[in-house]
UniProtKB/TrEMBL annotation:
GO terms for biological process: base-excision repair. The record marks 189 as: Transition state stabilizer. This is exodeoxyribonuclease III. Residues 44-269 form the Endonuclease/exonuclease/phosphatase domain. InterPro entries: AP_endonuc_1 (IPR004808), AP_endonuclease_F1_CS (IPR020848), Endo/exonu/phosph_ase_sf (IPR036691), Endo/exonuclease/phosphatase (IPR005135). It catalyses: Exonucleolytic cleavage in the 3'- to 5'-direction to yield nucleoside 5'-phosphates. Keywords: DNA damage, DNA repair, Hydrolase, Magnesium, Manganese, Metal-binding. The record marks 260 as: Important for catalytic activity. It is an enzyme of class 3 (hydrolase). The record marks 286 as: Interaction with DNA substrate. Its cofactor is Mg(2+); Mn(2+). Probably binds two magnesium or manganese ions per subunit. The active site is at 147, 187 (proton donor/acceptor), 286 (proton acceptor).
Amino acid sequence: MKRSADVIQKSDDENQIPKKQVKFDISHEEGSRKPYTTKVKVSTWNVNGLRACVKKNACVEYILEENPDIMALQQIRCQEDEVPESFRKSLSHYHMFWIGSDKGQGGVGLLTKEKPLTVKYGIPGVSNQRGRVITAKFKRFTFITVYVPNSGIKLKAIDFRMIWDQHFYDYIQSELRSNSNIIISGDLNVCLQSIDLANPDKNVKTAGYTVEERRNFRELLDTGLVDAFRHLYPDEEGAYTYWSFRNKSARLNNKGWRLDYHLVSEQLANNIKDCIIRSDVQGSTHCPVVLRLSL
């Protein structure tokens, strides 16, 4: 589901390894499956269909190897009762929370080693949510995973996107007022800068890189949020998290978009230890993005 004159939709058929790998350095410095203490590892991944990703032996294997404290999944394309039993059993050391979509087009999941104090689903004011937001409150921070609506081919859904952006902005403002430590992880369906996509000049009227979407994202950041990856790597080029299946060589040649993010409240910016794009992890048209944070 995405972009470009040559990049617009997602599929399960992407199996090529990108030419440029930003980083691939899976390690286990936290070492165990115990709840986190001071170091937190968060991974986000648009799996473009959880059941399909599991069938490819990609999803469970990645999570077990990465061993994150929090795993955020987007575009699961299933209801909670359709989550594969093999997935649940293999990852039974996680608390799991799900919000699905009636039409199987969205849905997000949250896996966490530590049980949240509270969990809520969706955001106020949006009727057609298609399973887009889960908010979990912990003792030291609030975690939000989100799958932002795509504006669609020929921007046919941009009006809904603008409405969504406003409601999400209001929601985040409200959360920031009540909790200064916030982490937002997910597919935000936008590239802010020209270096965030391979062909910016060709995509100024394509979903994910329109003036309106970039303006709204900039305003969201201005509420007091920091893009963790750009905070550490402000000039890094070729750092993409999504490659279209329509262009068969897109991933091989690294012609992609950076659509998947970890945002943290400004108070946590100095606590960011790393933000890593796992560009050679297969199983979806997106790849995982990992945040390492100390609290």
